[in-house]
Amino acid sequence: MKARTPSSLNDARGAPLASAGVGLKPVHYREILESRPALGFFEVHAENYMGAGGPPHRYLTAIRERYPLSLHGVGLSLGADRPLDRDHLRRLKELIRRYEPMLFSEHLAWSSQGASFLNDLLPLPYTDESLRIVIDHVDHVQDVLGRQMALENPSTYVRFADTTYSEVEFIAEVARCTGCALLLDVNNVHVSCTNHGWDPQQYLRDFPVSRVREIHLAGHASRTDGAGRPLLIDSHDCPVAEPVWQLFALAIELTGPRPTLIEWDNHIPAWTQLESEAQRAQAILAGAPAHQHEELRRANAR
To answer: DSSP for 207-238?
Structure first.
């Protein structure tokens, strides 16, 4: 395992220090190009743009000419006990070369078994064995890409009996050993903490906030489990919930202002509603104390 420091790799340099963005969806391509909204950046799922060309690349190229871009992966399967897919990594590297994103991020999850790929982001036990696998895979990704990646905290619905690390301890150790950055998904914090009975504010206070390069916000669905207890699902199909906005304000107190993304991947709303969510995030970022903005500017300049 090879330790890296954030300043030694191309992590989030060039990113707006305190700006909100949204996940880019094809239904909004034309409206964005015509209206040129006052947003800090856009983010896309890397796997949706691994083809050679066509309209998706034509529109993405036009938007990239006007805005910073963040790439978010969903298919590397970093937690799987198998080698990473070489072809997937090759296509990812080419995509990064093509668009020069401010950040590339992936999930702390697994989604492959043998030759099968599962269309989901599945949890892993927080054990020494899982830690070794994730560290090796993150190291490999950063070696192939020649740059730092960011690892996202998951939303989870079950806990493993053989877990020996807390989630925050596990994430912090991966970051320490690999030098990777972190993507803090505040909605995932709320979802997982509600489902498992954890304290979300303490989760944020324990999180290695100095490594956070981007924050995600999203909506979730509320259900109950078989025992009648609250069960939240990370659905990305509705506005950000009020408890998540409150946690976001605390996160910004702890991290300082960070590029913040509104994720909305299902039941895509009209552009005006998505833009309104980003504007609310922007207002919270703009309200961060001035010293936090200055500290972040200095950190990114190093």
So the answer is: S-GGGEEEEEEE--EEEE-TTS-EEEE----S
Which domains are assigned to the chain?
A: 6-301 (3.20.20.150)
Q: If DSSP states are collapsed to H, E and C, what string results for 172-191?
A: HHHHHHHCCEEEEEHHHHHH
Backbone angles phi, psi at 16, to 5 degrees: -60, 135
Query: Which amino acid, 153?
Result: N
**Interval 239-269: pLDDT, tens:** 999 999 999 999 999 999 999 999 999 999 9
The structure tokens listed for 299 are 């950190």
CA distance 204 to 254: 8
117 beta partners: 112
Helix, strand, coil content of the chain in percent (nearest 5): 45, 20, 35
Residue whose structure tokens are 């006052």: 38
Residue 32 contacts by C-beta under 8 Å, 6 or more apart in sequence? Answer: 24, 42, 63, 271
**How far is residue 181's CA from residue 255's CA, in Å, rounded to a whole number?**
13
pLDDT tens track for 167-204: 999 999 999 999 999 999 999 999 999 999 999 999 99
The sign of the CA dihedral 129, 130, 134, 135 is negative
DSSP state of 108: S
User: What pTM was computed for the model?
Assistant: 0.90
